[in-house]
Amino acid sequence: MPSAEQLVAKAKEGAEFLLQILANQPNDHENYMPLATRVISYLEHSGIMTSSNQLQSRTWFIQALQRYATYDGDVDGSEDVARWCERQWNRLLQQNPENSTALTRLGQYWLFRAQPLLEQLYDAEATACGEHGSSYEQTASNATKRVLTAAVQEEMLSSQLEQLRSRPEYAEARRLLSNATSFLTRAIGMVPSSSRSYRPLLIEVNGSSIHAFGVRTGR
Q1: Which of 67, 62, 77, 87 has the alpha carbon at shortest distance from 11?
Q2: Does this model's pTM top 0.85?
Q3: Residue 151: Cβ within 10 Å count
Q4: Residue 48: phi, psi to the nearest 5?
């Protein structure tokens, strides 16, 4: 049975290899997702993730694994690894609610969770706009004596989009983005405005996708 130190060493070796894959062979990264799972197993069995005096090492491991897991959310196993990272960040927050790194990474995790749904909803809106445009052209050509004003056209499109935005998927997108905004806003509050990480955080929390779904940032 390997010792705790040996398990941590194996985990570090594996995590460093994963980061090298992202840096040098990003197109092959999906082939190494099982290694990310093994790294988690090493960490869990070593006990390091519950050690209160290993904050720096724990943070490094979680960041490395989250970076790997969120590189491409379509890869099998990526969501499981990302969820493990979320649990670890929350564990760190229980020990220190003002941990800005944990708050930031949790915000990014919820944005990662929202991304596939946002893409689906954007596609649905784009399709609705395209169908509306085709319908308008056909109506106009078949009724040459009738003029549809821009205001009428916009009203028709607004009605279609309103129907789309009443779907449960939009409520779920708002929930995910609200979680992201909450954590990122808290992270901003922990970071001095003079810090180099302040502006990137501000950009994330004020992202256009968040505003598009009516989530208020509180700033």
Answers
A1: 62
A2: no
A3: 8
A4: -65, -30
